[in-house]
Specification:
- The structure is a single chain.
- The protein is built from nine helices and five strands.
- α2 packs across α3 and α4 packs parallel to α5.
- It is globular, with a radius of gyration of 16 Å.
Length: 191
């Protein structure tokens, strides 16, 4: 039986590449939270086109989607699934809300409270992580260019600046996840 929709809330993870959003989202999914990764829309479209999944092809598709559907594209395209999940789950997690327009659209049309959780890390650590990740690794210069594009073209700074909560990811994965679990207990944000 679904929980009372008035009590349902959405938690959107925001942050720059390599900050730890995906680690947090995977942890929450493993703990039973309904999770939607906005970036999956982009990867699905890259695959539908028969292209290799890589940073450049994802950038092309992401920017085309926003050119076609506006800066709130990922949220607008995901809104029916998000609303359905909120009707069936107590709380949901959105991985990778990027633009301020997405934040504004969800805040106004989601039908449930939206909390922003910024995952932040020093730039040098983010770039080290991006260089070492097994999927879509980036060199330091590629990471810098992606940061600049995401700030200038994708309005990424707005949701980070508007975050309701912030976790600093400058230590181990276990430390980050412990901070996350502590925050969720404090918020009574249970799956």
């Amino acid at each position: 039986m679904a929980e009372n929709p008035e009590r349902s809330r959405a938690l959107a993870l925001v942050g720059m590449p390599g900050a730890g959003k995906t680690i947090c989202a995977e942890h929450l999914a493993e703990r039973g939270y309904w999770t939607l990764r906005f970036g999956a829309l982009v990867v699905d479209e890259v695959r539908r086109r028969g292209w290799d999944v890589n940073a450049e092809n994802e950038r092309i598709v992401r920017e085309e989607m926003r050119d076609r559907h506006g800066m709130a594209a990922m949220a607008a395209l995901s809104l029916p699934r998000l609303r359905a999940a909120l009707a069936e789950s107590r709380h949901i997690v959105i991985d990778g809300l990027y633009s301020f327009s997405e934040y504004q659209l969800l805040r106004g049309e989601l039908g449930a409270p939206l909390l922003l959780l910024a995952i932040v890390a020093p730039r040098h650590l983010r770039y080290q992580r991006l260089a070492c990740r097994p999927i879509r690794p980036l060199s330091a210069s590629q990471a810098l260019q992606r940061d600049i594009r995401e700030i200038e073209r994708l309005e990424k700074g707005g949701p980070i600046a508007m975050a309701d909560f912030t976790l600093l990811n400058s230590g181990t994965t276990a430390q980050l996840l412990a901070q996350l679990d502590d925050l969720l207990r404090e918020l009574d944000f249970l799956p």
